[in-house]
Amino acid sequence: MRAVLTRVSHASVTVNGEVVGEIDCPDTGGILALIGISRIDTESSDSELEAAIEKMARKIAELRILEGERSVEEAGAPVLVVSQFTLYGKTAKGRRPSWSDAAPGEKAEPVIERITAKLLSRGLHVETGKFGAMMGVSSVNQGPFTVLVEA
User: Rounded to an integer, what distance in angstroms lies between the CA atom of residue 111 and that of residue 89?
Assistant: First the structure.
């Protein structure tokens, strides 16, 4: 699995014109986490998948990427989690990306939910998009500061 983590002062997700998830954190900053689950992740053993889920949640919570080298956990900052299967798009050949490395929705959705639950269990404020929906994602990046995390 992989995630693109972006430090933001504001981020939101709309579906059919309705805001379904939003963080507003001009003082502390927060994290917009675009998370993709691969086919390999969902074909792993239960223990390997659980370790990857734990690692991803830990990285999102503990990476020191907010202002002053603080983590969202330290700063009490919010996280907006958005599923993003396109992180596994292959573009090496042709002009049309291949999505064959991305996990199918019915297998990826529970993994995204488990990552979100792990973040919530750490006491973080977590908002989410809507899995499988056509989402409008907006963000006001700080820095800009963006990192790629793989678990």
Answer: 18
Q: Tell me: the pLDDT tens digits for 55-96?
A: 999 999 999 999 999 999 999 999 999 999 999 999 999 999
Catalytic residue, candidates 6, 14, 28, 86: 86
CA distance 24 to 1: 27
Q: For residue 86, which amino acid is it?
A: T
145 is catalytic: no
Burial class (CB in 10 A: 0-12, 13-18, 19+), 92: exposed
Distance, in Å, from the CA atom of 113 to the CA atom of 108, rounded to the nearest integer, reads 9
Two tokens, residue 39: 């086919």
Distance CA 83, CA 105 (A): 10
142 is catalytic: no
